[in-house]
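Figure 2 data, in text form.
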Amino acid sequence: MKKILSLTTALALLLTLSVGCNTNQEPDTADISESATTLADTQPEQTSTETEEGQKTYRIGFANASVSNSWRVKMRDMLLEEVERRGNIELIETDAQDDAALMNSNIESMLQQDLDAILITPCVEDAVNPGIEMAYATGIPVILFDRHASTSDFTHFVGYSDRQNGVDTAKLMIQALTEKNGEPKGNIIALDTIAGSSTDTLIKEGWDEVFSQYPDVKIVARQYTDFEVSKGKTFMEDCLTRFGPGEIDGFISQDGGVTLGAFDAIEEAGRGDEGLVCTNADGINGVVKLIKEGKVYGITQFPCRCSVDALSVAVDVLEGRSPSTKDVYLPSVVVDINNVDEYLIPDGDDFDWTL
């Protein structure tokens, strides 16, 4: 059975997890136990109705950044499954297709539909602030999850620390390079995601925190891939042309699909036997398989079920059970050869998400 972090576990950890006033400022990775900010004393007015059985029903909006990659598809699927399971939620959702202007427009339109609460995954940090602030001004709970925004006008953020994931994947890379070269040194390629997104910004902050301590570890090439497998493969093909055997030691990636594309390029170039090391900041089944095969050193997980946790927090706020902290952070999940079997789906598709 795969390890799945429940909201109950999350809430039990709240007293020891760090919180910031603005969600683009994640907990300090050196001290994730700073005191947390509490919610405002007032609760928003509820517009819910009741079923025949007396159970309250809620109309909850979901302003989704996009369904542009397999993680986001699975995240949405898990949210819809949870809505169906609960049976007392009407979900009104929109897809911004990673366009900030469209997301602001979507939020404005949803606010005309008497929502009880709204879930928002910002497509970028800053440009969606107007929509988030507009929603917050109405008095309904505004729950951000997955990605961050630079405004403080929201009720809660629910999710995992991209920055900590960056730190952990960089530490894995240092370990891999040390095993490969006898000391922490080497030239690596970085596969980034979407320019301006909090995910990209914060993961890179985590990488920089670690790599700055090792001057002999150098990122010799990097590229935004927009979570697209083909872009990861094409860029790796270009890098293999630029750098001959022995000139690069590995690569660090922010996306599992992009990592699989990069490995396709390596194999097709006939360079699969060079022992290039890889660490990855999220984990689809195909990458977990590569850990089992010894081709990927380790990954961190950013669980798709954060959408379910966000919905649970929204309902808790509506029912007077607000978390005691503004930002609800869950600890990173690190997968390597020592625990890979807990996350591997042996007969599963490469693009299945394992958590």
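Caption note: The mean pLDDT is 86.
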